[in-house]
């Protein structure tokens, strides 16, 4: 799930290398700065992931849903801080990476675009953390693959090599990709049945040898619910694992083909 996004961003260096030295230098600065602010949002998303997971594992779906809402609210503050960091220091970040003098202007303008991109990137990271807390990594991986490899990367390549707007095209492609992923992730989270996720969490952590989940319902009452055994749940896991491995293999093949094409 996470690697689908990581690998797509790695392609930016491959694309920039086929433009010119200045573009590669500016893209290196933009790439590293983007990951710097990514780590800030990812840390917050991990904390939210853990907190929501704790509520689900404790059989408290209402509290988990409330934690999700708080995550969105506090996440807006984190995103705003990231935007301020990039906008305020965009003139000095390129100097920290020993960016070529001819590429300074391109790097600084690209950083402003990346600052604008945080509105999409931040909530993409936060949504991914919420989905992970509910054990829906497979769906999130499929959404990321759709957004980045079906929409984002093709648009980025078109803008860079055919429209010829330099590395700006790549980051515009990322914005388009994250627009797609955020739409689907928001819809997925909106449709979550938190009580069912709490029941599933109790099965996974094996707190109940009798497979009885004690879940606090929306009216504050406790409800004992008979749920499928862990063995029944694990029957599905091998097929999901095989599907995930096939997806990873296809991604590696895609990168291999892209490397051959771009090296010519």
UniProtKB/TrEMBL annotation:
Span of the secretion signal?
1-26
Residues that span the membrane, as ranges: 36-57, 69-90, 143-162, 168-190, 242-261
Q: Which GO terms describe its cellular component?
A: membrane
The domain of life for this entry's organism is: Eukaryota
> What are the protein's UniProt keywords?
Membrane, Signal, Transmembrane, Transmembrane helix
UniProt-listed Pfam families: MatE
What InterPro entries would the database entry show? Answer: MATE_fam (IPR002528)
- Provide any one GO MF term from the record: xenobiotic transmembrane transporter activity
Q: What's this protein's family per the entry? A: Belongs to the multi antimicrobial extrusion (MATE) (TC 2.A.66.1) family.
Record-given protein name: Uncharacterized protein
This chain's source organism reads Rotaria magnacalcarata
